[in-house]
Structure formats: C-alpha cells, structure tokens
Amino acid sequence: MDSRRRASIALILLVCVLLAPALLAAESGEAAHANPLIPIVARLFNFAILAGTLIYFLRSPFNKYLADRGTQIRADLNRAAAMKAAATAQLAAIDQQMAALPAELEAVRRTGAIEVDAEEARIREAADHERARLLTQMSREIELRTKTAERDLARVASARAIDIATDYIRKTMTETDQTRLVERYLTQVGAAK
Questions:
Q1: Which pTM value belongs to this model?
Q2: Any residues with CB less than 8 A from the CB of 31 and at least 6 apart, and which?
Q3: Which of the 8 DSSP states describes residue 193?
C-alpha cells in the first residue's frame, strides 16, 4: 500500500509541476511586464517541486545503491588486503628460497664433485680391469700363436731336414751301400722273429 500512496503523491506533484508554469504565466502575464522577478520565481518554484519529487522518490534507491556500493568497496578492500597478505607471504617464501639458493647450489656442487670423483674412480677401475683382461687374453693368444708357430717351424724344419737328408743320401749313397743296408735290415727282421 505504501507504493500506491507514493505513486498517488508523485502523480499529484507531477501535475503541479506541469500546471504551475501555465497558471503562473496566466496570472503573471500582465505582472510579468511590471515585475521581471516573477518569471524567475516561477521557474525556481517549478525547479524546487521537481527536485523535491526526485529526492523523495530517488532517495531510497540512491541510499540503497550507496549502501551496496559501500559494502562492495569494503569487500574489495578486504579482498585486496587478503591478496596483499598472500603476496607478502609468497614474497617472503621466495626471499627465503633465494637466500637458501647459494647453500643449495654449493651442496649440489659438492654432491656433483663427489659423484664425478666416484664415476672417475669407477671408470678408472673398469679400465684397469679391462686392460688386465686384455693383457691376459693377449698373453694367451701370443702363447698359443708361439706354440703354433713352434709346431709349424718344427714340422717345416723336420720336413726340410728329411728333404736335405734324402738329397744327401741320394747323392752320396751308392748301389753297394744300398744293398748292404737292405741286407742288414733283413737280418734284423729275421733275428726279431
């Protein structure tokens, strides 16, 4: 019901605002020429009525807007303060990490140096082991090849000695020597039976 009452009052005031200049102009038509302040007063009166009507109807929405806007600004300020506190905390954490970074880098360097030394020792040990294995393998191979070469040399030398002996015997043996050897062989074979 309050809104109907306001609407009625607004309608009355609006009619007054619209009709007041016409009434004042009709009454002051003759007086306007005599007193120049009357049209100014009429306009001020119209303005006062219009301003009063606007204030009356817009006061509540305007106050509500201002209250809502104030609440929103406070919430924004609280949110900004929370964000600033979080940013400050993050900045402090980053500063702590930055302060600890040289020590961490030094620890990483030390660990890296230890790991590099360990890896070098492991590689050196593996290389020594591989060298020893290769030396052993080469010794065996040299020994094997030496034995093979000795056998081949003995075979070649014996073949060559046989060839030389055969050639010598052929050159120096006569038929009488050959007959005498065959007889001696037959005697030995006969005695062995």
A1: 0.36
A2: 38
A3: -
Q: Are 20 and 53 in contact (CB under 8 A)?
A: no
Are 20 and 42 in contact by the 8 Å Cβ rule? The answer is yes
Please name which of 42, 41, 59, 47 lies closest in space to residue 13, comparing C-alpha atoms. 47
Amino acid symbol at 50: L
Domain boundaries, the chain: 2-130
Q: Which residue, 18, 51, 24, 19, is CA-closest to 39?
A: 24
How far is CA 1 from its chain centroid?
68
Eight-state DSSP code of residue 117? H
Please name the residues in contact with 39: beta carbons below 8 A apart, sequence gap of 6 or more: 24, 25, 28, 32
Per-residue pLDDT of 120-166, as tens digits, reads 999 999 999 999 999 999 999 999 999 998 898 889 988 888 888 88
Q: In this structure, what are the phi and psi dihedrals at residue 173, rounded to the nearest 5 degrees? A: -85, 135
Q: Which residue has the tokens 């030496």?
A: 146
Q: What letter does residue 36 receive in the DSSP assignment?
A: T
Query: How many other C-beta atoms are found inside a 10 Å radius of the C-beta of residue 38?
Result: 17
The pair of structure tokens assigned to 99 is 């302060």
Residue written as token pair 């002996």: 165
Sign for the CA dihedral angle at 134, 139, 142, 145 comes to negative
pLDDT tens digits, one per residue of 75-95: 999 999 999 999 999 999 998
